[in-house]
């Protein structure tokens, strides 16, 4: 069979790309259903974009690479698309847009767009062999037990990253890219909970509060959640993309303002209760109790000196913790790193050294923050490649 474009991966980027390519397009995926990550995303409602999308919301060895594609396909463009498909949406917080109803509406929309563009989709299909003869790619495919040979002028790598292997994530895009001379930067789990051995956090599992998490490279003010194995919640997932093994992070448990003035005022107006009780007025009780034990806080508030209150306030706004690791690809929302952007044209996503080869979506070394940015990159990079083809 001969096609103009063969797209590997029917996820967010692959399906979106097929809506733009024109000519004869075949999309293949080893899964039984397309867009599985879209289906489960955003708690089943898909945080499909972010109104505040800018290149600053992405990590990449080349921070300029994403600019062109993001500028040419914006959140407003995606909103126009979903308006045509009558999908209702709402802004949750921080510019994050979600479906009112179900994430599967986005999958159905992309399927409909593929059909409109005349693209074909083969599911339960794996790549057995791939070659390039200087003019075209020849792929040997296993389609539900049958062998098929497909020749294509353009090959688009859209098989995503390594996160959540249970959902079918593989390193196929990296392997093919490497085989055709592209480089792949170091990959690691990102947007992932951080773990602590012997942290004593287990009794705190389920405690949540607003916090500011920081290290030397980034700082995020969002919810923090204690888990049985460590820390999670949006602020932790965000910072995990900037964290490296062995490094400490700083947790500010009183991000609105340091507690010193308020502790002093409480001492002045009585202060007969103990310091632990006072702490529980500002923090969830279980956390206040944990910190009181950890930091050996005892005695009445009235007996605390200014120096002691200042030290406590400072500690609450800069609690240094050193994670022992992360939950890894098992639960990571994305993969940091990927196909080195230096080998790709930023306006078309085409490999500089091998015209006809394209890479889009999470497979590329462009990783968004939490909050709809990763889908926006999938849409924008897919649009860049699809329209270039
Ligand atoms: P994606 O992973 O979507 O698609 C890759 C496709 O390739 C899959 O269909 C897979 O089956 C297929 N494939 C892989 N290996 C293959 C092989 N060897 N052979 C054949 N097919 C193969 N982002 C966001 O912006 N908002 C959100 O709300 C969320 N929520 C979210 C929740 C969870 C639980 C996860 C894991 C991730 C998110 N994300 C997110 C991230 C987002 O899902 C992700 O960045 C995009 O799906 C990436 O799109 P791609 O098309 O590049 O890869």
TrEMBL record:
InterPro entries, per database record: BaiN-like (IPR004792), BaiN-like_dom_sf (IPR023166), FAD/NAD-bd_sf (IPR036188), RsdA/BaiN/AoA(So)-like_dom (IPR055178), RsdA/BaiN/AoA(So)_Rossmann (IPR057661)
UniProtKB keywords: FAD, Flavoprotein
Keyword Flavoprotein appears in the UniProt entry: yes
Source species, domain of life: Bacteria
RsdA/BaiN/AoA(So)-like insert domain boundaries: 188-334
Lineage: Bacteria, Pseudomonadati, Pseudomonadota, Alphaproteobacteria, Rhodobacterales
NCBIfam families: aminoacetone oxidase family FAD-binding enzyme
Domain RsdA/BaiN/AoA(So)-like Rossmann fold-like residue range list: 4-387
Name of protein: NAD(P)/FAD-dependent oxidoreductase
């Amino acid at each position: 069979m001969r096609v103009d474009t063969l797209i590997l991966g029917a996820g967010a980027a692959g399906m979106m790309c097929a809506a733009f390519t024109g000519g004869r397009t075949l999309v293949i995926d080893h899964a039984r259903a397309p867009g599985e990550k879209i289906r489960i995303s955003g708690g089943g409602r898909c945080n499909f974009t972010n109104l505040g999308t800018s290149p600053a919301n992405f990590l990449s060895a080349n921070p300029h690479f994403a600019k062109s594609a993001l500028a040419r396909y914006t959140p407003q463009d995606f909103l126009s698309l979903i308006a045509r498909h009558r999908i209702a949406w709402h802004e949750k917080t921080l510019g994050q847009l979600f479906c009112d109803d179900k994430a599967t509406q986005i999958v159905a929309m992309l399927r409909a767009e593929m059909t409109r563009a005349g693209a074909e989709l083969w599911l339960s299909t794996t790549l057995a062999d791939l070659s390039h003869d200087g003019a075209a790619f020849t792929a040997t495919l296993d389609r539900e037990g049958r062998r098929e040979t497909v020749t294509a002028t353009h090959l688009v790598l859209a098989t995503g990253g390594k996160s959540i292997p249970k959902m079918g994530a593989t390193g196929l895009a990296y392997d093919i890219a490497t085989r055709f001379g592209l480089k792949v930067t170091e990959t690691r789990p990102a947007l992932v909970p951080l773990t602590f051995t012997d942290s004593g956090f287990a009794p705190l599992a389920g405690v949540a509060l607003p916090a500011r998490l920081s290290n030397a490279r980034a700082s995020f003010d969002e919810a923090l959640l204690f888990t049985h194995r460590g820390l999670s919640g949006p602020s932790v997932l965000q910072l995990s993309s900037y964290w490296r093994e062995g490094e400490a992070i700083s947790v500010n448990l009183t991000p609105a303002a340091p507690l010193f003035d308020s502790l002093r005022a409480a001492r002045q107006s009585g202060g007969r209760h103990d310091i632990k009780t006072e702490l529980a007025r500002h923090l969830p009780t279980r956390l206040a109790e944990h910190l009181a034990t950890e930091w050996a806080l005892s005695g009445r508030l009235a007996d605390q000196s200014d120096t002691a209150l200042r030290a406590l306030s400072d500690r609450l706004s800069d609690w240094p913790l050193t994670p022992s690791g992360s939950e890894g690809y098992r639960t990571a929302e994305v993969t940091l790193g990927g196909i080195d952007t230096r080998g790709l044209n930023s306006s078309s996503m085409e490999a500089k050294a091998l015209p006809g080869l394209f890479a889009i979506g999470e497979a590329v070394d462009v990783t968004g923050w939490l909050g709809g940015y990763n889908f926006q990159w999938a849409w924008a990079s897919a649009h860049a490649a699809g329209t270039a083809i």
